[in-house]
């Protein structure tokens, strides 16, 4: 198996499938270790939440203005997920107060750090939630407490900016959501194929002392 030329700890994957699931072969090749972490994270999500809502989102940096130095290290994505997980935990706690049968929700995720034409990095994410607790992102302009608003608030917190300063920096692509079921192999295959895009070798940076890929633990 060929090793990645810029990181010999990683291996290149050229096949059309991984663990019996399709990958987006036209966007390959892929990094085998990243495909494995995507697969493991999906399986852990389904083990706990048989009905899982997974969605894609992109986090961008402001095009102008000074940012603290940690914003260009992966500390910023750790701060984002700490904030987002705390908001989901608080939301489920409030739901539990209203209804003792309210569904719990463990946040799991995959993230990729990329640098394209800009000198500033951006992050592609896949986030997994319990579909029985959250099944939509919500209206982007809503003042209500929906998932998208929590994403914006968490990104603002990570950058130490007011929420209005990150308007437009949390980008949701077309058809971002997937409903995955433990008992539905087709739903898993469709999701894995689309999410495999995050595991491609292209546009990732090596040699800057920053990881280009990460995933939740457990």
- Dominant shape: globular
SSE ordering? EEEEEHEHEEHEEHE
Radius of gyration: 17 Å
Helical run tally: 4
Number of strands: 11
Structure characteristics:
YagK/YfjJ C-terminal domain-containing protein; YagK_YfjJ_C
Structure notes:
With 218 residues, the protein is an alpha+beta fold. It has one domain (3-215). The protein contains 4 helices and 11 strands, in the order βββββαβαββαββαβ. The chain has helices at residues 32-48, 75-98, 147-159, 185-195, and strands at 3-4, 7-13, 17-18, 21-22, 30-31, 51-59, 108-114, 122-130, 170-171, 177-181, 213-215. The strands form 3 sheets. Strands 6, 7, 8, 9, 10 and 11 form a 6-stranded antiparallel sheet that branches. The protein has a 3-stranded antiparallel sheet with strand order 1-2-5. A two-stranded antiparallel ribbon has the order 3-4. α2 runs antiparallel to α3 (147-159). The radius of gyration is 17 Å and the shape is globular. 30% of the residues are buried.
Helix/strand layout:
Elements: E1 3-4, E2 7-13, E3 17-18, E4 21-22, E5 30-31, H1 32-48, E6 51-59, H2 75-98, E7 108-114, E8 122-130, H3 147-159, E9 170-171, E10 177-181, H4 185-195, E11 213-215
Antiparallel strand pairs: 1-2, 2-5, 3-4, 6-8, 6-9, 6-10, 7-8, 7-11
Helix pairs in contact: 2-3
Domain YagK/YfjJ C-terminal: 46-216
InterPro entries: YagK_YfjJ_C
Protein name: YagK/YfjJ C-terminal domain-containing protein
């Amino acid at each position: 198996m060929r090793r990645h030329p810029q990181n010999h700890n990683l291996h290149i994957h050229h096949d059309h499938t991984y663990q019996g699931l399709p990958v987006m072969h036209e966007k390959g090749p892929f990094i085998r270790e990243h495909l494995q972490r995507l697969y493991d994270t999906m399986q852990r999500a389904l083990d706990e939440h048989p009905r899982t809502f997974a969605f894609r989102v992109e986090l961008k940096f402001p095009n102008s203005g000074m940012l603290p130095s940690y914003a260009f290290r992966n500390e910023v994505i750790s701060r984002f997920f700490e904030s987002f997980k705390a908001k989901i935990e608080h939301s489920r706690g409030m739901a539990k107060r209203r209804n003792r049968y309210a569904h719990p929700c463990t946040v799991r995720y995959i993230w990729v750090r990329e640098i394209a034409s800009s000198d500033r990095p951006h992050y592609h994410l896949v986030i997994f939630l319990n579909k029985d607790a959250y099944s939509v992102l919500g209206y982007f302009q809503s003042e209500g407490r929906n998932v998208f608003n929590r994403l914006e608030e968490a990104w603002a917190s990570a950058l130490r900016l007011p929420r209005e300063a990150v308007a437009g920096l949390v980008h949701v692509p077309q058809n971002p959501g997937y409903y995955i079921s433990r008992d539905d192999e087709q739903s898993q295959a469709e999701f894995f194929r689309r999410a495999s895009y995050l595991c491609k070798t292209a546009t990732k940076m090596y040699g800057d002392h920053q990881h280009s890929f990460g995933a939740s633990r457990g």
